TrEMBL record:
Pfam families: adh_short. NCBIfam families: PRK06181.1. This is Short chain dehydrogenase. Keywords: Oxidoreductase. Belongs to the short-chain dehydrogenases/reductases (SDR) family. GO terms for molecular function: oxidoreductase activity. The keyword Oxidoreductase applies. SUPFAM superfamilies: NAD(P)-binding Rossmann-fold domains (SSF51735). PROSITE patterns: ADH_SHORT.
Length: 265
């Protein structure tokens, strides 16, 4: 089991939402934290609100242009020592159809949601294998399992995460490295407001389902519980989880008809 007390935990996307909740819960559990996001001022706000701000370091990163992940990993380790737990939480979504989504938006979403977490993971894996311990927590989505309109890039990136981390678990699970995939549903965050719109700029609107979603602190607590239990994967969702089971057990024609009837932003 992975206990966080005394561990070095690196959290991306830590300036708000689920990432902020992960930082709060991990700090309460006695972890030392390295927090990353693009917004240093917001990271500082999060740090000041934590139970033990003296055990929190800030490492601003823009994952859309992560040039040197090995250097980022070295900088993270320079604060408190080698990273024990990596929480890949940063991500970006979309609110555009396949016809109106430019290739630049596909590349941006894949860069942030897939390539960046994989790159940071690969930068840390050699040290974890050498120490015989480590845990990589990656926030996917229910869209890692299902397809939906206006999510072609987002669903593709989340599906790709499952392929990579499920395979990595097979390769490295017996060398002391653990992997947990997290599949949240609707969580009350800025994900819809920050999603890419048709012009490639933030959508700027909070979806009704997101606005009425789960408290991110509750989601974060359930994530750390799954990590402590060494869960391979955990779905943290309400009624939206029904779509996952529909996709799994219904004929694809039936699921497609069901998804077409859903009103999504």
């Amino acid at each position: 089991m992975t206990q966080l007390a005394g561990k070095i935990v690196w959290i991306t996307g830590a300036s708000s939402g689920i990432g902020e909740g992960l930082a709060q819960q991990a700090s309460q559990r006695g972890a030392k934290l390295v927090l990353s996001s693009r917004r240093e001022a917001e990271l500082e706000r999060v740090r000041r609100a934590l139970p033990r701000p003296q055990d929190v370091a800030l490492l601003p990163l823009d994952l859309s242009c992560l040039v040197d992940p090995e250097d980022a990993a070295r900088r993270a380790a320079a604060f408190f020592g080698p990273v024990d737990v990596l929480a890949n939480n940063a991500g970006i979504s979309q609110r555009t159809t396949a016809l109106e989504t430019p290739m630049a938006a596909y590349r941006q979403i894949m860069e942030v949601d897939f390539f960046a977490p994989v790159a940071l993971t690969k930068a840390l894996l050699p040290g974890m294998v050498a120490r015989g311990s480590g845990h990589v927590v990656t926030v996917s989505s229910v869209f890692g399992h299902i397809a939906m309109a206006r999510r072609t890039a987002y669903a593709a990136a989340k599906h790709a995460l499952h392929g990579f981390y499920d395979s990595a678990r097979i390769e490295l699970g017996q060398q002391g490295v653990r992997f947990t995939l997290v599949c949240p549903g609707f969580v009350r965050t800025n994900v819809s407001a920050n999603a890419l719109g048709p012009d490639g700029k933030p959508w700027g609107q909070v979806d009704k389902e997101i606005g009425g979603g789960m408290d991110p602190a509750v989601c974060a607590e359930r994530i750390w519980q799954a990590v402590e239990q060494d869960r391979y994967e955990v779905m943290i969702a309400g009624k939206e989880a029904i779509a996952v089971y529909f996709k799994r057990f219904l004929p694809l024609t039936a699921y497609t008809a069901f998804a077409r009837r859903l009103k999504v932003m």
